Structure formats: C-alpha cells, structure tokens
Amino acid sequence: METTSIHRQTQISQIPLEQLANNRSVSDEEKTAEVSRQFESILVKQILQEGQKSSVSSLFGKPTAADSIYQDMINNQLADGISKSGTLGLAGNLKSQLVRQAQGALSAPEVAGTGDKTITPQNS
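Above: the chain sequence. Below: its structure as tokens.
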C-alpha cells in the first residue's frame, strides 16, 4: 500500500498547479498535500540559495552565468527531493493547518443574509 501511495503522490506532483485545482480525479486532501509540498520546496530552495550566496562568492569570486544556472538546477532538485522525502515536516504541518481551516470554514454558521443570527464576541 505504501508503494501505491508513493506512486500516486508522484503522479500528482507531475500535474501543473494551474491544472491541479480543476482536476476531478484528485481529492481535495491530495491537492492540499501537493500544494503544501511545493510550498515547502520553494522555501527550502530559498534557504539553500541564501546559504550559498555568502559562502560561494567569498571562496571563488563572482560566479558566471553558467555557474548560476547549474547551481539553480541543483537547488531545485535538492529542494524538491527534500520536500518529497517529508523529513522536514513543514508540508505536513501546513497541510494540517489548511485542512483544519477549510473544515472550520465549512462548519461556521452563515451570518450574511440572515437576520435571526447574532454574532457574539469570543473572549480570548
């Protein structure tokens, strides 16, 4: 079952984000998981890039355009691999938060357009 799940996640990760939202064969939970994973991947890539700025430029001088392209490709693959492994855990936490917020939005009573419901402030 684990292999089937990993294969399914790999298939979903191949779908472009703009097509993922309207894809009826992918559940909302799978969509949320993939968006969370890709967000984690972007953050990891930015962390990798920032970490390399000071160390690479101080050791080897200014990188060439080809160096920058290859380093960007390496960062993309590394960030994607880290996010797919799930070891960082940010995507899982983000997915949980998004699912919780979506469930809360669905279960919240509708206030607009109803004159018989009152809104009471909550004490924090």
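The two ends are 44 Å apart (CA to CA).
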